[in-house]
Amino acid sequence: MNRRISKPVTEEEDARISRTAAADPDARELTDAELDELRPAHEMLPMIFGQDNAEQLMRRRGRPASPVTKELVSVRYDRDVLEAFRAGGEGWQSRMNTALREWAAEHGML
């Protein structure tokens, strides 16, 4: 998975962005009265799109949360052990977890 790390905006870039936004007639600041009228999407979407469509729009994206939680740890393994698991391709971490689980069960640790 490729994740880009964005650079912080410089003061010059921030000033240019602010000037551009201020010059845009469609990007005016909202008044206090307009801000008071704003409502959260979960209140407005059913009125605009209907309850079923609103629920679909508001549904959480991605993989559902697993009931079994994992813990992130930092561990050092011998290079040859890692190479052996990585050679199996995608899912090598899960296979390593399964191997550790089986070993722990065989030795009465689980």
Question: Features of this protein?
Answer:
mainly alpha; BrnA_antitoxin
SSE arrangement:
Elements (H helix, E strand, L loop, with lengths): L10 H13 L8 H6 L3 H9 L1 H8 L20 H8 L5 H15 L4
Helix pairs in contact: 3-4
Description:
With 110 residues, the protein is mostly helical. Among the domains are: 30 residues, no CATH class; 35 residues. The chain is built from 6 helices and no strands. Helix 3 crosses helix 4. The longest helix is centred in the C-terminal third of the chain and has 15 residues.
Count of extended strands: 0
Mean pLDDT: 91
Overall structural class, as computed from helix and strand content, comes to mainly alpha
- Rounded to the nearest angstrom, the distance between the terminal CA atoms is 33 Å
The number of helical runs is 6
Give the overall shape, derived from the CA principal axes.
elongated
Helix content: 40-55%
**What series of H and E elements makes up the topology?**
HHHHHH
What share of residues are in beta strands? under 5%
Enumerate the spans where pLDDT stays under 50 for 5 or more consecutive residues.
none
- Largest sheet geometry: none
Summarize the structure.
By secondary structure, the protein is mostly helical.
